[in-house]
From TrEMBL:
Protein name: Uncharacterized protein
Annotated organism of origin: Dallia pectoralis (Alaska blackfish)
Length: 111
């Protein structure tokens, strides 16, 4: 009986952890817009160092210094989507230009 309950218990634990992580992410605004994500990032930057210092004092070991990252999610939000749309919007013009070049090349070969 216990052998059949173990997989169910494992699945329930995994689903609970995943659901809890999703709830915390949603509750803190990580699934919102870029400004909201930036605010959450600033809150995390302010809250994590004191917590790490407390743990370092408790366990008695030293961690390496945190590197400074000059990254703003507001500036980079959906930059991949924007570049993809830019390529797609310029695609018909580029294809037309390549077609004209190919036709001109074929005309030059026939002459």
């Amino acid at each position: 009986m216990a052998a059949k309950m173990l997989p169910v218990l494992k699945l329930a634990t995994k689903v609970s952890i995943a659901g809890g992580a999703l709830y915390v992410a949603y509750d803190n605004g990580l699934l919102g817009g870029s400004e909201q994500g930036s605010e959450v990032l600033e809150k995390a930057k302010a809250a994590i160092p004191p917590a790490v210092d407390e743990w370092v004092k408790y366990f008695g070991f030293q961690l390496p210094a945190i590197p400074k990252v000059g990254f703003s999610p507001v500036e980079a939000w959906n930059s991949g989507v924007q570049s993809s749309i830019s390529v797609l919007s310029s695609g018909p013009t580029a294809v037309g230009g390549y077609t004209n070049q190919g036709l001109q090349y074929m005309k030059d070969l026939i002459k």
